[in-house]
Amino acid sequence: MRHFLLSVNVPTAARKLLRRLVSGDESEAPQITTADEWQVGFEPGHDDNPAEAPRRKPDYCLNVGITWPGMLALEIKDRVPALSFKSFGAFTSGAAERAKLVGDTGPSAPQNWIGAFGKGRDHVLLTLHTLSPHAMKSYSDRLSALLAEGDAFREIWRQDGMALMEMKDGQPVPHLQGSLWLHRRP
What we know:
The protein is 22% helix and 20% strand. It is an alpha+beta fold and 186 residues long.
């Protein structure tokens, strides 16, 4: 898996790029993964058309997360004036401000978070999962090219998930410290 932490540069271009990631046109841009079921290794289900080719597990999965500062940077609040986030206090205050409430203290405190997490410039996090190294390179290259178009985003941090692994008894295991996985090693 590969994570791309982005800061919005040009809100209009950034919104346009995010729309492309949900356009349904795979040839235009990798698409954010939906909840469609895959019929991998199974007979067609009751909602499947047996005349259609069976769906296969895709070779990538793309997820996106947008922070409150990201929503502001994307000018979403300005574009939808009736939208209220009053009932989403945990979202609008952010993870760094609420860190103590969830036990992120000491080595897990925000000042020890890696990259630009919790600093207000962490607007959008794209996470790319792939089935092969070749697919990782291909989709990462496509995403990087898209992100550079129109100066929409500035990449402020990139990390492969495997880089957050450690060896224990000769086996790779996730390096988890505290409640968040994005911590600097002590």
